Amino acid sequence: MKKIYIFLFVCVAVLSAVAQTTPNLYRAVDKAKMNHWVDSIFDAMSYDERVGQLFMVIANPKSDTRNMQRLMRYVNEIKIGGILFHKGDPVTQAEVTNRLQKASRVPMLVSLDGEWRLSMRLSGTTRFPKNMMLGAIEDNDLITEYGKEVARQCKEMGIHINFAPDMDVNSNTDNPVIGLRSFGENPQAVADKGLAYARGLEGQGILSVAKHFPGHGDTAEDSHYTLPAVHHDRARLDSVELLPFKRYIYDGYAGVMTGHPVSYTHLTLPTIA
Question: What pTM does this model have?
Fold first, then answer.
């Protein structure tokens, strides 16, 4: 008998829920019209263009000549499918977005890493509390309304995807990177608040993305600089780290972002004769 430290089986266990749940935004569209449009575009693409559509690049929303030349090369030569803007200001980002969308043959997906609204990335925009403070709100309908307002601002900026909510359970006080980004230390409460936020976003047509799967709350290291590990068995992962993500998937929300941490769990496999 061997004890094997493995992460993939946890991913399979959670993501198998995807096959059982149709995303809410997909259910809401005219599928015949959507499929006709997608097929007409896809069939006209070269293989290189199809590969390019898989890439979403990170870029600064600057309108200087050098930066615009680089971004135009992404659009015209690589045929990227999307863009994630880094920190900037809303006026310049809107200008750059319009120029890139005009140049792209296929409309690009524009995304935001905005856990606590546009102000996380764009200067001069309305500042709202971080998730830890929102986690203290008892009325989750208020968080849904908050999500709707974030969605409204995203649409004004031509943004289609918000990489939020953060569904990490803040169970480690030594965590250097999650902290206030989490809705709290209770897994069910984190799920409730995160789902309320996602409901507001997707109810207004903005794709939500839960993160950081499989859970970054119980780590004492910053995954931007090293590879943290979460040392727990399957029962613990199911009841804490994975619980918000499972509820998010089963409730039909759009996307999940994987994080950098490795989750360890024990599998006992039979010996092969």
Answer: 0.86
